[in-house]
Known about the structure:
By secondary structure, the protein is an alpha+beta fold. The chain has 2 domains: 45-93, no CATH class; 97-186, Immunoglobulins (Immunoglobulin-like), CATH 2.60.40.10. It contains 3 helices and 12 strands, in the order ββββαααββββββββ. The chain has helices at 45-65, 68-77, 84-93, and strands at 2-3, 15-17, 21-26, 29-34, 97-102, 113-119, 124-132, 138-143, 145-146, 152-156, 168-175, 180-186. The chain has a 4-stranded antiparallel beta sheet, with no helix packed on it. A 4-stranded antiparallel beta sheet has the order 5-6-10-9, with no helix packed on it. The chain has a 4-stranded antiparallel beta sheet with strand order 8-7-11-12, with no helix packed on it. Helix 1 (45-65) packs across helix 3 (84-93).
Amino acid sequence: MSDSSRNFITRNLRGKFGDQVVFREQNEHSVMANVQGKRKGGATGGQIAECNRFTQASRWAIKTIADPDEYAFYVSKAKKKMNAYNTAMTDFLNPPKVTAIDVSRSSGNPGEEIVVTASDDFCIKQVMFEIHAPSGDVLEQGPCRPDERGFIWAYTTTTAISAVPGITVRAIATDKPGHKGELTVPWKA
């Protein structure tokens, strides 16, 4: 691939020239590349799934930015050379992540704070916290409170939790598109 943006004759060309080369823009440069041959065989299951995921992202982005408030939000989050539509699609395609749950400060008494670290490329709407018995039953659950930056979330326990082996805690982060990211760790009271 050669950079043709400085060439007076080819710098504004776009498209295919015969069956030999293609002119296109890449990273603000006009480039010339070989014409790619046709693919042999059909798309794989993974390719079809990825195509469907992008179709869902596109539909979600179109619907979302039709709302003036959502449009303004995604315009404010857009990086250089991106628009609200691209930014909303990016948000749809990247789910949130829960990266840590700190239960070290809790001894199992009510009123103690458990800290959850969660992130998303744009916005986390909610983080839910659950404490599970060894059988899988939910002993306690509720929403976490965010700090002023929205990266650290805190949950205050409401019941006494005994130090029975097999108790786990789980945090579930939800972003604007409704995707979830979660993390489960053992209770270390």
